[in-house]
Amino acid sequence: MPTTPEQPLQRVLDALRTRDRFVVVSHARPDGDASGSQLALALALRHLGKHVRMVSRDRPQAWLLSFAEAADVEVADRVEGELDAVVVLECGSLERTGIAGLERYFVINVDHHRGNTLYGAVNWFDETAAACGEMVHDIIAGLGVPLTPAIATFLYVAILTDTGSFRHANITARTFDICRRIAGAGVSPAAVAARVYQQAPVGTLRLTGELLRGMELAGAGRVAVLHVDDGLLHATGCAPEDLDGMINLPLQARDVRAAVLFKELGGEIRVSLRSKEAIDVRAVAAAYGGGGHRNAAGCELPPPLERARPGLVADVVAAVDAGTRD
Ligand SMILES: [Mn+2]
Fold this sequence. Notes:
Helix content: 25-40%
Number of domains: 2
Radius of gyration: 20 Å
Shape: globular
CATH superfamily of the largest domain: inorganic pyrophosphatase (n-terminal core)
Bound molecules: manganese (II) ion
Strand order of the largest sheet: 3-2-1-4-5-6
Number of strands: 12
Largest sheet: 6 strands, parallel
Number of helices: 10
CATH class of the largest domain: Alpha Beta
């Protein structure tokens, strides 16, 4: 695909080619796309002989640590030292990294979240990408780095997880074109899926059971509301990252159009929102200072939860009404 120097991908490629010392970061509490994109790009830059560190505000998820390369991710809340550039993946704003000191460097911003603030010296923002991993794939291809089995594996981790195992609305032909290349590089989709989805400790099954037992319904059964607090995590022996993906469980029900998960953890209240089809929960999250995608978004709320909860649930019901009317 020919590109002109003015195109964002080309500017990213130029910025990477002409520099040598990088830190690659992604967002705090990294998900599969964050860590997968970070690892794939870091390995590709190292393939070119460049000096690359990976830094994350929080430890990668437990299942990701089953990949040996993930041990190389440094957990830190600050970046210092001599660098030519920081590559920020999968972050709508620099604050999403949870890492201090980045603004002092040449920042290369690669992201697919609507509302990206274009905070980099070089910015490539593509909200049509199903995963940041798709964009990283194009960067790696543009750099002329071959898809080694390890690089291809992490790209697949990014795409598999960010598409909800190929179920979300953001999937395009491009997604499958990239996955076709990944499979051609020798990656076994089934083996990667097993490493991602069959690593859970039994405590997460207990947590799943408790979350669903406490599920409430609003909006004539079309909105499912889940709640978790420190006590429930403690009782099931789980950590906050074990909640990842659990908000999607209620969407298995035909009549549930949207799901809300209230997380009262460590004195903070976080809200995750998911929806089906045209129902826009990003707009709901944005009204509370959050963001995300149409079908997957989140925000934070000031305590106490009881004050904000009814209004937010009502807003989700209204979003379901609006999204169902269209
Ligand atoms: Mn993503």
